[in-house]
Amino acid sequence: MNATVRRTAVVVAASAMAVSLAACGSAKEAGGSGGSGEKKKDGPLSIGLLLPEDQTARYENFDRPLIEAKIKELCSDCTVTYVNAKQDASVQQQQMDSMITKKVDVIILDAVDSKSIAGSVKKADAAGIPVVAYDRLAEGPISAYTSFDNEEVGRVQGRALLEALGDKAGKGQIVMMNGSPTDPNAAMFKKGALSVLEGKVKIGKSYDTTEWKPSEANKNMNGAIAALGRDNVVGVYSANDGMAGGIITALKGAGFKELPPVTGQDAELAGVQRIIAGEQFMSVYKPYKPEADAAAEMAIALGRGEKVNADDTIDSPTTKGVPAILIPPVSLTVDNVEETVLKDGLYKLNQICTPKYRAACEKAGLK
């Protein structure tokens, strides 16, 4: 991915992000790079919300309810039409066409395939419907974008893996289990991780994992162990927690006496529990609320024909200078579970510390 971020102000802090956007006020001249620029009347807006899949827990458990709640808070009369593509790019294209036919005022889109959705984004633009790219940078004339600093996500993962490896970094090989090749974020995670890892550790095998599937990660990890030899694998870069689960299952099945450090991302409940149990070294905690809030605020502003107030811009392969809000990620280890996912209310203590993990939680000081 050759997207280039231009910093125009200090990076927005995840814990205190303020985006000054009018919610249900008077219409002003439209901003952004897409949409017709026509002025919308005051009153209810119709907002389409398209999420990419339901295998990763975050979308149904966090992104959707947080976005819907923020829209309701900002504009009680606004309505949200929600669909999930279940990892099928052609289904998502049909869903976009349906939103255009329904003449929604604005679309929030988390693309399954950033390239293949470009035609649908063009259709929306031609129909005067602005599109907010959410979490993944869709191609086509999008009007705004919010996500995490995705190269920094990869750097956070890479630094954590090197920290966990210590002097083993020069004595063995690691396996890189990257995300789906259709997801532009995966390319940015990979780029960020490689910027930290290359030259400091030998990468024995590297895979781009079809559709982020844990089963594919499990299969690929088994292949890597067979090719490299069990004793030569000292660590695993896993781009997310779901794949980390499949990787760890493969490592256990291969008879590792001590599991090598494995990274992750998304702070999924199962991932947090593996971290506490000592099976997974880290995850990347991405506070979903500020990202969801930004998407809702952008959508309402654009639906009103108002200009998005964003501190960054980003270039996609097809669109330059897209207003963007990028949120910094946090490295999650056993040492800061309490200060992150528990403090922010992502999970309750009893959700993490089930009977299976009670002893591990007590050892980690989680009581």
From TrEMBL:
Q: Which domain of life is it from?
A: Bacteria
Under Gene3D superfamilies, the record lists: 3.40.50.2300
Q: Does the UniProt entry include the keyword Signal?
A: yes
**PROSITE patterns attached to this UniProt entry:** PROKAR_LIPOPROTEIN (PS51257)
- Which CDD domains does this entry report, sorted A to Z? PBP1_ABC_xylose_binding-like
What Gene Ontology terms describe what this protein does at the molecular function level? Answer: carbohydrate binding
Instruction: Please give the name of this protein.
Output: Substrate-binding domain-containing protein
- What organism, scientifically named, is this protein from? Streptomyces alkaliterrae
